[in-house]
């Protein structure tokens, strides 16, 4: 008791690390944003890299057109990494880097910058002080995000090399962040999210163990440095139970499969980004309460509480959030951690029969799915066969069908749509931040200047040594560090390994996916229109669904392809990462009636005109083109003026309505009368 007779307040737990996922335009602009966020009380950095950096291309690659600085910061060489972390002491920072295929390269540049910041310390001393995480989960890239470069075998080799290096040289670093976040975005149920993340962890740990680079004594340290990155949806009771299921299963797998004895090394360590898929363009102010509910799902349960949390902003379905929007999301966390009494209590769900029953149900379902994947040869075999991808596409299709039928309610979208005008979106163009249109030019100039001042011979020798090491079983981290210090670029590092390892195209999962179980009157009516219009034009209607540029977010394109197939169209979908020229060539070869482009990276104003110009040059200037993505209203108007027949954004959630619109566009393009 206190002197005034009041009960003593419990000692609070330390709050989780608070991050904001950020990075855009240029290294200088991102650095200013990081330092501002740290001054506002953010306790860790979470770096978003642009798509060329994530997929191993320099800004001057044709595939980088329109993508530079759009969804993150471009880091094509060591000079830009220096600018990114200027005046931020890396030996005292906890940095999360969302990077996968090129994770080894980005970690090497990060380490070299830290060495340069601490010239009085040896490289080994600097490395031992670094703390943070590289996402480095390539399996979910094959399944959901699409920023893979190499095939599964080579990718797992790079991951194992990084793990072995960090456990010895950067012991406070999490070398892989097994990421179920994007699995949920791609449609995963809670059972699938838990099961496929665990299958990924098993594949990685088996690879490390089989590589012989880590002793049995050090293997427990490897397990202890594995971290996870999960998604938290709005069903926060179910999400709370999902996290408790993760904790239980991870403890069991690491103890029984790998013999880890130290309970601390078996601890399920995870960070979270709450669900961006559930954020709506319609009535976007409702996203605030969605984000708070999702945050509660990973913080209320002490026994399964996140170690780090980063929240999206309320307006991410509209475009790039402004610094103020990111500050608002940071304040959500700070109010919960510092104003509420949450951190003063033990687990508030312990002993709840409701929670325990749901956790048991999730664990049972996840174990069964893990067993199915292991029986077919593990996660890699399940990726290559398309099994996991088909399951995700099918689960996503089922969810979309529930939303369209109204079975799953989205407030402001399919129910309670009447709304007062929102002051937050009165001026849509100012409600988001525009990407710097000069970012690509600045990156190109930086790349040219960098190459002009470096020692070209030293770079060539370092890249040759990297290629030679890649042809052996040597750990590639050392050769990568040499290349970084010599001044190689991101594209040169990845290009060197492409020459050795080759490239890979993951299965799309569309052909084997299960579509809408109950067609209903609306879809039946569209099928009849598709059939009748095809007869009038002399054959079955064919649509090409294309993903130009480096954007690997294929969920929307996949769902359009599945529903179009269900509606009776013949669908041509070739997957992600196509150039405009490749899309035009496919349109010519397949003699399609319409081209649909899906772009979520913000590169629509560059890539869509390139496709239109290519079609015109190929004699298909009258072929209708529609576009879908996160496209601001002003850009949508500009695209229509440029010749696009229709623009769809997240507010257009009715896929069957979109199919009907496609028929309208095709009929208008061919001058057909209205349906009789």
Alpha-carbon Rg, integer: 25 Å
Amount of helix: 40-55%
Mean residue pLDDT: 92
Q: How are the strands of the biggest sheet laid out side by side?
A: 1-10-9-8-7
The largest β sheet comes out as: 5 strands, parallel
Structural category: alpha/beta
Cα shape: globular
Record field, number of beta strands: 15
Distance between the termini: 83 Å
- Sheet-strand content, in percent, reads 5-15%
Are there runs of 5+ residues with pLDDT below 50, and where?
none
Would you kindly provide a written description of the structure presented here, covering whatever features stand out?
The chain has 676 residues and is α/β, with parallel strands linked by helices. The strands form 3 sheets. It has a 5-stranded parallel sheet with strand order 1-10-9-8-7. Strands 2-3-4-5-6 form a 5-stranded parallel sheet, with helices on one face. Helix 24 links the parallel strand 13 (594-599) and strand 14. Helix 21 packs parallel to helix 26. The model has no long low-confidence stretch (mean pLDDT 92).
Summarize it.
It is built from 26 helices and 15 strands. The chain has a five-stranded parallel beta sheet.
List keywords for this structure.
single chain; 676 residues; alpha/beta; 5-stranded parallel β-sheet; 50% helix; globular; cobalt; metal-binding; MeMalonylCoA_mutase_a/b_cat; cobalamin
What is the fold's blueprint, element by element?
Elements (H helix, E strand, L loop, with lengths): L16 E3 L1 E2 L4 H13 L5 E4 L2 H5 L22 H7 L9 E5 L4 H15 L5 H7 L1 E4 L4 H7 L6 H18 L3 E2 L2 E3 L1 H5 L4 H22 L4 H10 L1 E6 L3 H21 L13 E5 L12 H11 L10 E3 L12 H17 L13 H23 L3 H6 L2 H19 L33 H15 L2 H15 L6 H10 L3 H12 L18 H18 L4 E5 L8 H12 L3 E4 L6 H11 L3 E6 L4 H14 L7 E5 L3 H10 L3 E3 L6 H15 L7
Parallel strand pairs: 1-10, 2-3, 3-4, 4-5, 5-6, 7-8, 8-9, 9-10, 11-12, 11-13, 13-14, 14-15
Helix pairs in contact: 1-3, 4-19, 7-9, 9-11, 9-14, 11-12, 11-14, 16-22, 18-19, 18-20, 21-26, 23-24, 24-25
